[in-house]
Amino acid sequence: MRPVPRWGSPRRPKERSRCLHSTWATGLGRFVYKLLLLRKLLSVKMIYLVAKAAVGLVLPAKLRDLSRENVLITGGGRGIGRQLAREFAARGARKIVLWGRTEKCLKETTEEIRQMGTECHYFICDVGNREEVYQTAKAVREKVGDITILVNNAAVVHGRSLMDSDDDALLKSQHINTLGQFWTTKAFLPRMLELQNGHIVCLNSVLALSAIPGAIDYCTSKASAFAFMESLTLGLLDCPGVSATTVLPFHTSTEMFQGMRVRFPNLFPPLKPETVARRTVEAVQLNQALLLLPWTMHALVILKSILPQAALEEIHKFSGTYTCMNTFKGRT
Ligand SMILES: NC(=O)c1ccc[n+]([C@@H]2O[C@H](COP(=O)([O-])OP(=O)(O)OC[C@H]3O[C@@H](n4cnc5c(N)ncnc54)[C@H](OP(=O)(O)O)[C@@H]3O)[C@@H](O)[C@H]2O)c1
């Protein structure tokens, strides 16, 4: 009895193998062709986008008009938040809303912004408390109207090592610095999507990309907030009129990191809160997704991705970032 051919065809073995080879060859050819086409299309688009960005660096770009925007800044009473309120007001924002826990500084900033001729309101709200965020957001909508620019700026730093930190303090940083952004964004984003007009801003930190010892709570919360913004930014790609900006500043001279000391302060001077605020508002007006401050921090990202861990550890020790939190006196 003749054996039943395995491929169900009575072709002779040689013929069958030639046929198989040709099917494989055609399939592979098609795959390679598609890959090349995709690469070509991608690289053309990439070249266009990179060229566009490079031109944008040298030519003055058109800044978005803020005169119809209502801006809400969490932690807007002091530090970078207060400077952001000044900057948004100076650049013509319609209304400014400040959130925070300390009434005294919220009141002072509100008065100052009103004197600049901009409508300003403040609300006491702990962004780490989900229910409080939703209730205050409702009150803002009723009293002020729709928020079209949300700046997630509020944050705290406990500033200790893991074993020296009590559990509640560790939780508090995560609640305020990371989860707080979930709640505020959930409260205001739906209306922005309806209006097809909105911008979510996150004041993050370079410590999200390169952590230091002695601020484990803060670095963890900022790295998590970075991932949150990365995911949110990509998720907004097909939402017309709504986008996001993440700002990653280096050490800035506010009360937050009081007492922190780097080894070469002249080489790496702290940023001024005015500079961070100005560059942040500009990034919103330019619809820039990511802003590292100062620009030299890009070198940090590159070094981190190419150097071996031992070499990175030497840099940390040499630059003093390894011990900079030993003198920290800040407050939460
Ligand atoms: N300073 C730096 O070296 C530096 C560097 C990189 C990035 N950043 C980032 O920049 C942002 C602003 O920092 P900063 O230097 O201006 O700090 P800051 O002077 O300590 O101000 C922090 C602000 O957050 C508010 N805040 C804290 N917890 C809050 C809560 N639970 N609910 C509502 N508001 C709260 C504070 O107001 P109340 O205390 O009144 O609530 C205050 O207005 C932060 O996200 C920080 O991580 C700072």
UniProtKB/TrEMBL annotation:
Signal sequence extent: none
Pfam families in UniProt: adh_short (PF00106)
InterPro entries (alphabetical): KR_dom (IPR057326), NAD(P)-bd_dom_sf (IPR036291), SDR_fam (IPR002347)
Domain Ketoreductase span(s) in chain numbering: 69-251
Top-level division of the source organism's lineage: Eukaryota
Family: Belongs to the short-chain dehydrogenases/reductases (SDR) family.
Protein name (database record): Short-chain dehydrogenase/reductase 3 isoform X1
Source species of the chain: Equus przewalskii
Gene label: DHRS3
